[in-house]
Fold this protein.
Amino acid sequence: MDKLPLALQRLVSRGYDFSLRQAVMLLESFNDEDSLRYVIRPSSELSFPAGEIRRCWIDEDGLWIIEANVLALAGGGSPLPHYWIERAAAEDRSGESLRALLNLINGSVYSVLVDCWRHVEQIAHPHGWVDSWRSLTVTSRSHDGLGLVPDLYCRLRSGKYALQSLVQRVSGTMAVAVSDRVHTWVGVDSAEPTEQGCLGGSTGLKVGEDFCLGGQTVVAGGMTKIVIGPLQHLDAVELSPGSARGEALKRLVGLYLGQRNQAQIELLIAPGERDTWVMGADKWRLGCSTWLAGNAERESSLLFSITTE
């Protein structure tokens, strides 16, 4: 258990926090030369599901088992799967009809779902030799940390889903959201007035073409934003800039996106994980322990009143 990557350790210990797609794609991303095998087994319990997965474990043969809640297939509030299972359980007390229904769902529905997820997230190239050639090319770059996610660099760019998978595996958490076209504000250099004509004229200046109002303008599609969390405070510290994992995450994301892409990583810390303080409290005083503006601490004076009798 301790030898497993952090993401897989959390899948075993807190499998119910994962969606079925997250769990399957996580195992698929670690599946190297059939060394990792898994099966999906629908749970026969008829209790209302808290999530899509009841639990995950590894049997004595090293097989990963995902016990899935059947009622969560179409959402916890859907009456259709619940009606099917209740009817099967009522007609056959021995459980044969119920088991036949669950096997049908497992053999058909889950299989189609996994095939669709593989296609969307491009888990493997249809021709194995292509991945082998790309792997040889990538590993020859001599970049630190590529051993964590070599397969993600061996395929064509597949958008935000592959980047999301990369961040999930490096950060060890599945709570990752990627936005691939984020609007950003950039400064505009001022220029001398031209002699093109008057504002509003047929041959004059046009807002958005020849000039803009203000000192900034919006650029669409130039930024990729990655939001990780909510995280515990210690996990956020481990992923923050300057830490080993944080620097590895920045390096791998930058290498994956290439030099022409910009990315922003935001770490969300769960409520209650950090100490909060109120301006003006005994511990924090404006002008003494805190200040406004500036990037460095400076000398300050503390004013207080004395009451004389």
In short: Residues 157-182+221-307 form one domain. The beta strands are 37-42, 53-58, 63-68, 176-187, 216-231, 262-269.
